[in-house]
Design goal:
About 5% of the residues lie in helices and about 50% in strands. With about 120 residues, it is mainly beta. The longest helix is centred in the last third of the chain and has 6 residues, at about 100-105.
Amino acid sequence: HVQLVESGGGSVQSGGSLMLSCSATPYMMTTYCMGWFRQAPGKEREGIAGIRRDGDEYYADSVKGRFTISQDNAKDTLYLEMNNLKPEDTALYYCAAGSKLSPCYQLTPDFGDWGQGTQVTVS
């Protein structure tokens, strides 16, 4: 299992940017897929971005063109660069680690390990 800790959340104005980070312990380099999910109050958890170990990236339509997922295996860190943020992006953002292909590209929450989440608020 991998322990995940997110950071970088905060409050921004519409149109602003944030960079989320997720550190993995003990290491991330052998994890098959890393993903970012979010959950707004009263809504289901939504998969927004995934990245496979080989570098293939997947995005939800709601964030495509605005968010970029990346990973630095040397630092065991996953990133989510978020640009042109909108009020509807307000949510608790989670990173996740998984070993299956289907949840990775379908961005479904069948991931084995989860972080505690970091809040993003866009006004």
